[in-house]
Amino acid sequence: MRLSASCAALVAACTLAASAAHAQRGASLPIELGIDGGVTFGLGDADYTRIALPGQRFRVGFFTSDAISIEPAIALNYVSTGDTHSTDFVGDVGVLFHTSPTAGGSRVYLRPFAGLETISFSSDNPNVDDSTTQFHLGAGVGIKVPLANRLRARFEANFLHGFDSSGAGDTSGNAIGLTAGLSFFTR
């Protein structure tokens, strides 16, 4: 299983930067820990459907104010079918802009994000081995709904555009994603 060092470095750098920004604001702001499941639909030539339930990605949100949080996220998927194996690693960072500055009740948010995805294929057949890395930009809109003290359900619809960054041919494309998840807040 090969992971892109650039994806891991991106997530680590964003997590450290967000953690430092959160620390400067003091301990009064919560940290949001979450996991999402979802479905993604590739559009155009990159026609695919990816369903990942119950967990598609893990995220950590560092609030810099009551209305803004910085959120690094990672996803790791491994698929094995017969003699073919695929590893997909995604690291991205988003900034959530909450429309309601108060923490009570449901909160709608807008989330622009950027990241990297590395997909590696391997097989007993040496002609199948390949890997690609792709930079992506996107935006999502969602809502956080209270379930219990410090626990919220989170629903999001997003659009992503991937840019060919591997030099291995045209891997650019668009996708629409729908996610549902749970968030735990430390305060």
Main β-sheet description: 8 strands, antiparallel, barrel
Number of domains: 1
Q: In sequence order, what are the helices and strands, one letter per element?
A: HEEEEEEEE
- Could you name the CATH topology? Porin
The neighbouring-strand order within the major sheet is 1-2-3-4-5-6-7-8
Just name the CATH architecture: Beta Barrel
What is the SS-derived class? mainly beta
Radius of gyration: 17 Å
CATH class category name? Mainly Beta
Basic shape: elongated
Summarize the structure in short.
The chain is mainly beta and 187 residues long. 11% of the residues lie in helices and 64% in strands.
Structure, described:
There is one protein chain. With about 190 residues, the protein is mainly β. The protein has one domain: Porin (Beta Barrel). The chain is about 10% helix and about 65% strand. It is built from one helix and eight strands; from the N terminus they run H-E-E-E-E-E-E-E-E. The chain has one helix spanning about 5-25; strands at about 30-45, 50-65, 70-80, 85-100, 105-125, 130-150, 150-165, 175-185. It has an eight-stranded antiparallel barrel with strand order 1-2-3-4-5-6-7-8. A hairpin with a 6-residue loop joins strand 5 (about 105-125) and strand 6. The longest helix has 21 residues, at about 5-25. The radius of gyration is 17 Å and the shape is elongated. It starts with a helix and ends with a strand.
